[in-house]
Amino acid sequence: MVRLAERLAPLTRNVFADMDQAKAQAAAQGVDVIDLSLGSSDLPTRPEILAVIAEALQDTRTHGYLLFHGTREFRQAAATWYEQRYGVAVDPETEVLPLIGSQEGTAHLPLAVLNPGDYAILLDPGYPSHAGGVALAGGQMHLLRLRAEQGFLPDFGQVPNEVLQRARLLVLSYPHNPTAAVADLAVMEAAVDFCRRYDLVLCHDFPYADLVFDETLPPSVLQADREKRVSIEFFSLSKSYNMGGFRLGYAIGNRELILALRRVKAVVDFNQYAGILRAGAQALLGDQTGVREMVNTFRERRDAFVAAMHRIGWQVPVPQATMYVWAPLPLAWADRSLEFCQHLVQKTGVAASPGAGFGPGGEGYVRFALVHPPARLQEAVNRMASWLGLG
Length: 391
Known about the structure:
This protein has helices spanning 15-28, 47-57, 72-86, 102-113, 128-136, 161-164, 185-198, 255-266, 274-285, 289-311, 337-348, 374-388, and strands spanning 34-35, 96-99, 119-124, 140-145, 167-172, 201-205, 231-236, 249-253, 324-328, 350-351, 353-354, 365-369. The chain has 2 domains: 14-39 and 289-388, Aspartate Aminotransferase, domain 1; 47-285, Aspartate Aminotransferase, domain 2. The N and C termini lie far apart (54 Å). With 391 residues, it is α/β, with parallel strands linked by helices.
């Protein structure tokens, strides 16, 4: 029998793998699956972005390995986009790092800042890769419980002193996956103050920077840490530009943290295909009409899905951001989110994400991803109503 590393033990159980199996079984039985479990946009990448990749394919200079200095055009585009958006100066040579999606950055950062046994403070519920990266680094996790009555915002006073003495990292992500909560600049300022007081690195995962439904854009953590003393922020082109399959993101922040993450990356991989980075630069600096259209599309879907849920008597909150609805489970299923989602897809074909997959604080909830047109979302609600005896 092969002996595996102990660091894999925390990664053995994965409710999303359980749900993937449940979806596959339902599909194999001929069930028409409406998959609302994954936050993968169904919208197409804009033609002008794809055209850049198509043109690059004919350029033989793009066919080889791409090292850091070959990413300069993309890093400059990211810095320009950020400065125009948030009014904070960025050095593209020392404060920007291209990534294979923001998830690569958040998963690898603990390797750069944690020693075995050090604590990372993570949101609960929170995005699963945040915990996975800490586990692989041999770190310990302190889960900072987020509560509906507090708007799913962090209370740093919850962290015990014995954890703070051994903590090295705080991970935030707003707009928040899975709860769709939005944090204002005061929350970011409090987080920066907290990290400076206790000598923590502040990691902010920011893939939903554009996907908000009012006129106020959510703040960057670097607006609260303009000198970039403790902070690093991770961006993705997956949501804003419908480029999830191209695996393109980047980090901006403290130059020591950027260099440390770059050193980790250097022993793991090279960079993406150069044509993808050229397309990323086009996306960031080109016409942003597509971003506005994407937001409008998800706003229409949110409104249609929430209205349908309310009509059947399932009182879900109206999210102000992201592509998700974070729904309290019906009382009969209150502490059985995985079982609920498994039965739901088997009986109705509607697939959702169990709240327990996002941490103990997610139990009692289910997350629906609005990755289908309104008519299909309405059909999903009708199926759930029939199965649950609602409406």
